[in-house]
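The aim of this short unit is practical: by the end, you should be able to scan a pair of folded records and say something sensible about each. We start with the first protein, listed as its amino acid sequence and then its C-alpha cells.
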Amino acid sequence: MKDGKGSQKTRVVEVYPIMKGITKETLSYFTTEKVGLGNFVKALVRKREIQAIVARVTDAKMEKTNLKNASFSLKKLSKKDILNVSIPEYFMRAVDKTAKFYATSTGSLLSALLPKIMIEEPKTFFSPPNPKFESKLKSSISKEIALLQMDTDERYGHYRALVRQCFARGKSIMFVVPTHEEVLRAEELLSRGIEEYTFIFSLKIKPKEAKESWGKALNKNHPILFITTPSGLAFNKKDLETIILERENSRAYNSMFRPFINIKTFVKYLAHESRKQLILGDSVLSIETLKKVKEEEYSELSPLRWRLSTSPTSIEDSTDLIKEDNEFEIFSPALKNLLEEAMFNKKSVFLFGARKGLSPTTVCGDCGFILPCLNCGAPVVLHSKVNGKELSSNDNPTENIYICHACGTRRDARTTCGSCNSWKLVPLGIGTETIRNRIRKLYPNQEIMIMDKAYTPTESQARNMAKRFNKTGGILIGTELAFSYISKADYTAVVSLDSLFSIPDFSIHERIFYIASHIREMAKLRSIIQSRNIGRQILSWAGLGNIIDFYQSEIADRESLLYPPFSLFIKVSIIVRGVDLEREKKYLEKLFNKWEPEFIERKIEKAGQINLSLVLRRPKSGWPEDDVLERLSLLGPQFLIKVDPETIL
C-alpha cells in the first residue's frame, strides 16, 4: 500500500454494506482509483459480493498509524469494483443527519430508504458523480419551508397552479404522498393536460414499469411532475426545484419497523441539503408544524385556513341510547335517520369505527382486569371468526375468538379472567363487526362492506372494495385504513371514537381531531359525529372545522406539561423475564441517570415476561445531543430505541 514515485494515490475507503446480518456500521477497503461519497461499489464480504455505498474517503497517509496497528489487512477495491454511478452527496448528508437524529445507523437507514430494486440495479436509477453540481449546491442558500392548509379540493387546485408555475420557469417538481393509492389519486388530479410530463413511482407497480417510469422521467428534456411514495425520494433530476410533502399529518409516514423514523424529518433534511423548496400540505397540519408557522420559522404559501368549510356536521350524544333486544343500541336517532335517508335516495354511506372486530376490549366483571394477549401483553380484540371473514349460514354465530392486533396471537373466546379466574368477561367498545351486525338488523338485504386489516388484509382487496363502493354505493364501514382508498361518500358518520379517548397518550387529542376532521371532509352532503364524550370540546371544534381554537387549546396544554413539541421523548424498550427485571432496570438507570429517566412496566402473561420501557425527556431545540447518543449506542440489538416517537405507550 506504499505510494512510490509516480504511483497513484492510495485511499482508504469506508463503505456502508447493504446486507442483512452485518453488525458493523462500515467496512474499510483501500483503492488507488478515484472514488467519492455516495459511490456504489461491489465489496467482498464473507466470500460473497455485495453492493455497498461509499461513506468516507481518506488519504492512506493520514491513516498510516491506524493501519499499522490494525489486527487485519485491508482488502482492495479495484477499478471493476467501483461503479460509475452514485447517490447524490446531498442525499447522503441528509441520511447522515436523519440517522443521528433517530440514534440509528446510516447503513440501516440507507437500506430502509433505498428499495431493493435500486440496490440491485443502481445503474438504472442513478447517474455518474457530478462534482460541479455538488459544488454549486454548497454555495447556494437553503429555502424556507412553506405550508398549505386548506380543504383537499382547494389544496389540489393550488398544487396544479404550482406545477404550471414551475414548468413556466423550466423547473421540475416532486410530489410525495404516503401510499400507493394516493399516488394514483394524485396522478388523476394533477396530470390533466400534462400527461406527457407526469411520471409516477411506487413499489406497488410492476418492477419493469417502475424502472421505465424512472428512466423516462430522468431523461425527459422538459420539466416534469414526479409523483412518488417515500420509496422514490432518491430521484434526482438537474432541474428539480420543489418537493411537496402531501398529507403531512399522516401516520403512514411513520415506519413500523427498524429503523424507527418519520419520513417527514428526512424530507426536511433532504430539502435543506439539496437547497430545494419544501412545501408541506394537509387539511389539518400537525401541531408541531403549526407551532413553527406561528413562530415564523415556516412561511405560508397561501394564507392558512384555520376554519375548514365543508359539509354540515352535527354532534350526536350516544350516552343514553335505549337498549334494544337485550343489546346496547349503538346508533343515535339522527344516525338512523341519516341511514334511512341514504337508503331511500340510494346514496353512499361511510361509517367510521375506530377498532376492528366486535369489541376492542374485554374486562372482567368481577375484578376489572383487562384481558391481555398471552404473548405480548397488549389488550386482545374479540372477533366473530378466526380469519375475519363474514359468518356463513353453516357457521355457529356464537363462535368467537380473541386476536391480538399487536402480534397476531389468537386464543379461544371461551376463557376465564387471568387475574381472578372468573368467567364473567364483559366485551366493551364498538368494533367494525358490531357496526355491521347492527346495520344488518336494520337493513337485512343491504350490501355491507368492511374495510379494515381483517377484512381487506391486502392492498388489492382494499382497492377492489373501494372501486365497488365508488361505483355502486351502499354502506362501507372502515377504520383509518379506508382513508387511503376512499376520498368521498355522500354521507359520512363517526359511529364511535370513544375508545381513543381512553388512551393516555400526549398526542391522542390531535389524532382524534384529525380523524374527525377527515371524515367530515369526506362527506358530499352531510356528516354526523356520534360520541358518549359529547362534552369534549374537541369534538365540537372538529364538527365546526375549527382548527384555530383546537390548536390554541392543545398547544397550551402541551406547553404546561412540557410535551412535544416543547420537548422530545426518547423511548428505550426491552422484553425481560421477571427475574431479570431489576437487573435491566438498574443497568438502564445507571446508563441514563444523568437525564432523570422514567420507567414504564407492562406485564406480559406468557412466561412471566415484562415489557420494560425507559423514557427520557430532552429539549427539542438542543437535539441531537452527543452524550445521549453515545449512551444509546452502547445498547445491544435486544433494545428498541425510538426517538421522537408518535406514542410513548
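Turning to the second protein, read its sequence before its C-alpha cells, just as you did above.
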Amino acid sequence: MNSASSGDTIIVSPGTYYENIEITRANLELRSASGNPDDTIIASNTTGKDVISLGARSNSKITGFTISEATGATISGISLSLCNGCTIEKNKFLNNSIGISVKSSGNNALRDNTVTSGTGTGIYISQSYSTTTSENRVSGCVIGIKIASTQDGGNTVSKNTVSQNSGSGIELEDTNNNNNLENNTVNSNGVRGIYLARSSKNNLKNNNVSSNGGNGIEMGYSSENTVLGNTVSGNNTTVNNHGIFLDNCTNSYVQSNTVSSCEYGIAMRYSNNNHVINNNANENDRGFYVAYTSSGNTLSGNKANSNSLNGITVISSASNNIVDSNEVSLNSGYGIYLETADNNKIFNNIASQNSRGIFLRGVGSKQNNLSNNILNHNTADGIRLDNSSENHLINNTAISSNTYGICLVGSCNNNELKNNTAQLNRIGIYMTTATGNTLSQNAIFENGESGVLLSLSNNNILSGNVIHDNIEGISLGSSESNNISGNNVISNGNGIYMCPRSYYNRVYNNCFNNSNNANIRNNISTWYIEKTSGKNVMGGPNLGGNFWGSPSLMGFSDINLDNDSDGIIDIPYVSANGNVTDNYPLIRIVLPVAKLDVSPTKGFVPLTVQFTDRSQDATSISWDIDGDGKSDNTNKSFVHVYEKPGTYNVTLTASNRNDTSSANVQIIAEEYKILPVANFNANVTSGYAPLSVLLTDLSQNATSRNWDIGNDGTVESTNASIVYVFTNPGTYPVSLTAVNENGTSVAKPITITVTQ
C-alpha cells in the first residue's frame, strides 16, 4: 500500500488480513480479487484504530471486502475524513463500533454494502454534503444510518434496507437543507423507524416503514420538512406509538402518506402551521391527532377510516387549526373529536358510519366553526356538543343518525345553529340544559320523533326554521323563556308540544299547519306580540300571532276572515283546552309568483322574440324588456323585435295586493357577420430550380389578403396575384389568409416542391 501511486488499483487475494490500513494516496482503488467479501477479510489488529482510514483523499474506491473488529466508541470499519468523490461499495461490515464513517466530506458514494452486528451506528455521516448512501443493508446496530451536524445538505439516503437495529433505523440530527431520504425499507427497529431531531428543510419520500418498536417517522423540534408518499404500518407494539409524529414542529408538509396499525396514525403536539394533506390513516387506534397547543395546522383531503377509536382528534388547547374536506368513516369512536380546543374550523368533511360524526366536548371547546359537513348513518349522533359554548354550526347536513342529528347537552350556551339540515334521525335537533343558543333557518324533516326537542333549556331562540314531516315538530320539556318565531312547522303529527313545566315561552309569527297544531299542557306561555307593522311569516303586512292551519284547509286560519286586510284574523284563536290564546292569529296570504316564457333568447338581428306571462296569483304584470328599469309592456303575451345587437336583461314583475315577485331572463341579439374564406390557385406545385410559380387569390368576401411563403410569419405580398421564384431545391409551405372588415379567415395552405 505504501508503495502505491495515485491512480493505481490494488487487488487483494482471498484470505484473512489482520491490519489497520491508512490510505495516503488519492485516486486509488482497493478491491478484492474475487469480488466476494466473504473470502477476503480485513480485521483490525489494533484496538482504537479504524480498520481502513482515508484522510483528505479524493476519488478513491474500496470494494469487495469484509471489514471487522473496529472497536472503540468512535472507531470505524472504514473512515473518510475530508474526502471527496470516494466510493465504498459491495463490502461487508461486521462487529464494528461504526461500520462506515464519513466526516467533513463531500460527493462520496456508499453503495450496496452490508453492515451488521455493530455496537454503535451502522453508517455515520457528519458535517458532510452530497453523500449518496444507497442500496445498503444495515442491521443489528444501535442506529442504522445517521446524518448529523450537517448544514450544507444535499445528502441522499435511498433504497436502503434498515432493520433490527436496537435504536432508530435512520436518524437526522441537527441536519438541514435538502437531504433526501427516499425509497428506503425501515422495519423492526427497536425505537423508531426514521427520526429527525432539530433538522429542517429535508425530504422523506416513498419510504416503507413498518413494525418498529416506537414511532414510525418522528420529527422533533424540526421545521419545513416534507414527508411525502411514505407507507407506515405496524408500529403498535408498545404504548403511544405514532405512525408519523410531529413534536414541536413547524411549517412542514405531511402529504400522501399511508399509515395503518398504529396507536396514533399521524399525530402532532406543540406544533404549528403544518400541512397534513391527502393522507390515509386507516385501521389505527386513532387516525389523526392534533394536541397540546398545536395551532395553525391544516388537515385537508385526508381519509381516516376504520380506526378503533376516533378518525380525527383535536385536543388539549389546540386552536386555530383547519380540518377540511376529509373523509372519516367506519370509526368505532367519533369521526372528528374536539376536546378543550377553540377557534378551529371544521368544514366540508364527510363523516359516516361512526359512533358520532363530529363531537365537541368541554368548556374549552368554544368559538369553533363547523360548516358544510355531511354527517350520515352515524350510530349515535351526527353532531354532538357537550358542555361547549359559543360555537357556530352552519350549513351542515345530518342524516340518518340513530339518535340525534344535532344535539347540545350539558351547559352548551350561546351556540349558533344556522342553515343546517337534519333529516331521517330519531330526533332532528336536541338540546338539554342549554341556554342562549340560536337555531335559525334550519331544515328539519322526516325525523322519527321530534324535529326540535328542548329539555331543561331556557332563553334560546328558534327562528326561521322549516320543520316538517316529523312526529312532533317542536317539543319543549321543562324549558322556559324561549323565543319561537318565524318558523314553518307543517305536516307534522303535532306542531308544537309543551310539558306542564315549560313556562314563559313566547311563540309568535309561526306557521302551524299540522294535523294537530298545539299540544300545550299549561297556559303560562305567550302566543303573540302586539300588532306591529312588518311582513309576517305568511306574507301579510303585520306581525302579531301565528298561523293556525290544517292540511285539510279547515284550520282556524283557513276558515276565518280578515275583513280589514291587515293579515290578521278578526277574532282571537283559543285552543280547545284553553291553554293557547292568540289575540292576533294570521291569515293565509296569497302571494304572486312571477313566471315567464321567452323564445328565442339568442339570435341575429333583427331578432323577433315572443314574450308570454305564466305568473300565478298576480293581478297585474309589468315587462321591462331592455333592462332600463322602466315598464315597456303590461300585456300577458306580445312580440318584440330587437333591431340593434346587444345583451338585453328582461324582467317580468308580477303583483297583487299582498306583494310583488319578479323573474328574469337574458336576450342576446347578435349582428350577422360575413367572414372571408381564403382560397387560391398555383399554376404549378413542383418543378426544377429555379421554379417560377404564379399564385392567384380566389378568396370569397375578402377585401385584402396576406401571402406567407415559407411559413415564417412574414407577409411576402398583399397583391391579388404574384409570381414567386424558388431558386433553391426544397419543400416550401405557402399559405394565404383573407381579410375583410369582420375578421380574418383560416389560412389556406399548399406545398411547393422544388428539385435540383
